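explain this.
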Amino acid sequence: MSLVGRKVTVHVPATSANLGPGFDTLGMALSYYDELVVEAVPGTGATVDVTGEGAGAVPTDESNLVVQSIAYTFKHFGQPVPGLKLTAKNIIPHGRGMGSSGAAVVSGIMAAKGLLDGIVEMSQDDLLTIATELEGHPDNVAPALFGGLTIAWEDSEGPRHKKLFVHRGVSPLVLVPSFQLSTKLARSLQPESVPHED
């Protein structure tokens, strides 16, 4: 079955993770969304048009994280990757603690899910497993996939999550720094242990 002509639109929220004592486990979706339109086109390869955050800075070919996530999802289910045309309207700041890479991964996975609708069935467990494999940990991708506040962890059966409820009166205040800092560098600055007194 040819996918050429299939088009999907995906909205994925920003997230804030490592909330309070829930380091690497607690994450919350925020009402701040990137929008992605993906169309299957003839041929192979991908073209990416980015407006907003990351325009002129993120790759606009097959090396783009969203494209890699789409391709990974297709291959995970043994499906051939079609030619892809992506249009991304990004508002989630990059490198500022709002889960932009997790949102890119989830955007790609959800776009693949939409393109493969009726061909491949994807469970919530499938989505979380693929997202965790691509992102490396589930704390940001779980709330990006499922919304709200989540606790996520990995065990011998793979990544897991539980959705938690947030009181309606709680309104997050997000402070976004004017500078970028990679997650890898931020993690390297943390102490290996915290004294009991602290």
Observations:
- The CA atoms of residues 30 and 173 lie 10 Å apart.
- The beta strands are 7-17, 26-41, 46-52, 83-90, 149-155, 158-164.
- The mean pLDDT is 92.
